[in-house]
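Incident review: delayed structure delivery

Summary: a single-chain prediction request sat in the queue longer than the usual turnaround. Root cause was a stuck worker, restarted by the on-call engineer. No data loss occurred. The affected request and its eventual output are reproduced below so the record is complete for anyone auditing the incident later.

Affected input:
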Amino acid sequence: MKYVKLILGSLLIALTFNFLLLPYNFISFGDVGLGVIFGNIINIPVPFIILFINIIVILVSLLINPTNSYKYLLPSLLIPVFMYALSFLNVTVELPEKVLVMVISAIFIGFGYSLIYQSGYKGNTIFLLEEDFGDYTKIHTQVYSSVVDILVVITFIFQQNFELAVYSLFIMAIARFIVNKARYNINDSKMFYVITDKEKEIKEYIIRTLGYELTELDVKGGYTKKKRSILLSVISAKDYFRLKSGIMNIDEHAFVAITDTYDVINRKAF
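Output delivered after worker restart:
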């Protein structure tokens, strides 16, 4: 089933691009947006440009951090190949309002990438750049890819017009929201269990820097019989990377277990 989801997700993105985005001169986020921008400049079919961008990014990523690259490889090849293959179909999709095109395009693109993530693979090499840069700087954040999208929209304003750029910006925002739900799971909170030799520093980071409460659990190792404390904290998904990278910066040998929480009641009760 994972390959079925991978193929369906890639095909849905390609269909949306060919029959909704291109006819209405809209763009999407990441490598697709970059492909359209460069396609308008050098007059080369967008699928070829997207494929070229993806290959370059993956090759660079293989040199920096190979573990991030492999799950992006198949989607990065399938999506532009499907785009090119579908370009030979003489099909026109007409919708009464641009707003409707915007909403449907965003949902289809978001759902397509969600299927790819559900298959165990990852889509859009802009996120691969984001992961590699985060690993290199030790600061993981979605700001990196957002900056690229903002630059793409600004460039698109000069290439087309302000109206199309605004529609495209909404497509990016809605699609990204759906994709992030797939990337970080559908819940809004994460629960961290931390065992560390630097409890004081990590407690200060969680409480003072991030502003979250925590609970200490007294435990005993099943094998070592050594008594330790587990730091437990429930945080918003938006601070997931901040807490994870913060703990690793304080104690790179810390044991960290992260689970999903689907509801939080009385967050500051303990």
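Verification: The longest helix spans residues 162-183.
Action items: add queue-age alerting; document worker restart procedure.
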